[in-house]
Amino acid sequence: MADRPLPAQSLLDSIPQRGAAERREPAPVHLWTPELSGEMDMRITRDGTWYHEGDPIERKALSQLFASILRLDDDGRYYLVTPVERWGIQVDDVPFVATRLQVSGEGQGQRLIFTTNLEDEVTVDAEHPIRVEVDGQTGEPSPYVLVRGNLEALISRNLFYELAERAVEKGEGDRARLGVWSAGEFFPIDGSR
Questions:
Q1: Does the reported pTM lie above 0.90?
Q2: Residues 74, 80, 81, 87: what is their CA dihedral angle, to the nearest 10 degrees?
């Protein structure tokens, strides 16, 4: 056991290599089913900062590399997964934060494109919806967008305010919902159910 590499390094060693400047696409982690290797001292805070052994990971490329092997399993836990290892990590809320918004078009033809803190781009559509949870005690909204698989990004407060400025009312049944259009789909942002 003493010869086994540290978890972070062993994970890095088992990821197929690509050119250093090439942007890494997410790995096909949904196809890999290794046994649990253990818990790694890695944490992603609500603001999207990645920590390893208590220290922030300062190189964005390294956080992007780890994010490319991140998976949320049915047990509600997040794991870093390779074909041969699966390490549990802590995520305070969700692993990404939407930090930029690009809008093209208007009305129902409008397209909302978010960029995350790790440079993932996602167009809001039927496969990448927006959802808003409202804290029952504080009334504080927490807006999210689905980035890939079942991994979400918290929409930053300033972007949520921007969405609120673009919001329109749409009748749904016997009530009106406040929301935004993207890719021909309506996404309520009022947090009501």
A1: no
A2: -90
